[in-house]
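TL;DR need structure tokens for one chain.
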Amino acid sequence: MTDLGWPHTTPDSAGPLGWPGRDKPGPVPGPVPVPEPSLPDYRPVDLATDPLPPAPSEPVDRIRQALRDESADTPIGQAAAAAVRVMNPSGSHDFPKPARRRILTVANQKGGVGKTTSTVNLAAALALHGATVLVIDLDPQGNASTGLGAPHSSGTPSIYEVLLDNVPIADVVQTSPDIPSLRTVPATIDLAGAEIELVSVVARESRLQRAIAAYVDGPGSDVDFVLVDCPPSLGLLTLNAMVATEEVLIPIQCEYYALEGLGQLLKTIELVKANLNPRLAVSTILLTMYDARTRLADQVAAEVRSHFGDTVLTTMIPRSVRVSEAPGYGQSVVTYDPGSRGSVAYLEAAREIAVRGASI
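>> reply
TL;DR here they are.
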């Protein structure tokens, strides 16, 4: 090997195949340690410095934490927070109580503008937020009774007996199965003939007024709001409602036809005010079935606001499938789907009504 130019080595120090050996045998090298990879910290600054709270282990705990987290930006978090505000289980979102009892007629001689739907859902929203509400169904169709889960089959004690037989409201009133502070005086199909039967009755236009006064002065003294749902006409039933109340709430559908009959309704209100009930006034106008995709809806809303000013509520009720589905389950939309757009809209409309009433 030395002939080939390799350095001379002794046998003791020679390595295998004549490679130079080590002067001193050393330890056999082990595996080279690999440093653990460090990931960048993508947390926000405040979370990067503060310790994170322990994550909840159970699904129900995670749901409760999501409901408590008011800053959740996810759609499901927003819907959950909206549902909690609507249902108001803790009472922390109660509306202000009215300075005095408010009795409102919900009227519009045009059908399909949302009278009954608005009556049911406004009443439910007010009752869920600290008020005691009485709803009087004065429409022979009985749709308000259906929406509030009140039985109203033929033969059920109803507003018909109150108007024709002088039966006290306390004997026919029903409590809502979903909301204890919400009461209903149902309407049955018998009410369809009341228009004719009232013609020959003495003081026919003030029958409802006397019945409501007797109730709120007695067993219903705790009632804060009375809402009367009227039929789509300007007959004796609607006249009874206007004589019995002090305020008129007019739902207006955001379409052209809804404006055509509005002038006739206002003339009727003025006649009642001049001859039968000087305290009557249009206090609230609610825009319903608003479709933001159409220019017509914006034009109708602008026209109504320019004519009636602050009487029109800021909140508009959008078209919503959930609002239409709820009566099929005998519920208002605020209890059927509290987080839906329609439910939140009616909640805000009820809040506006309550706030206005607190200063009256």
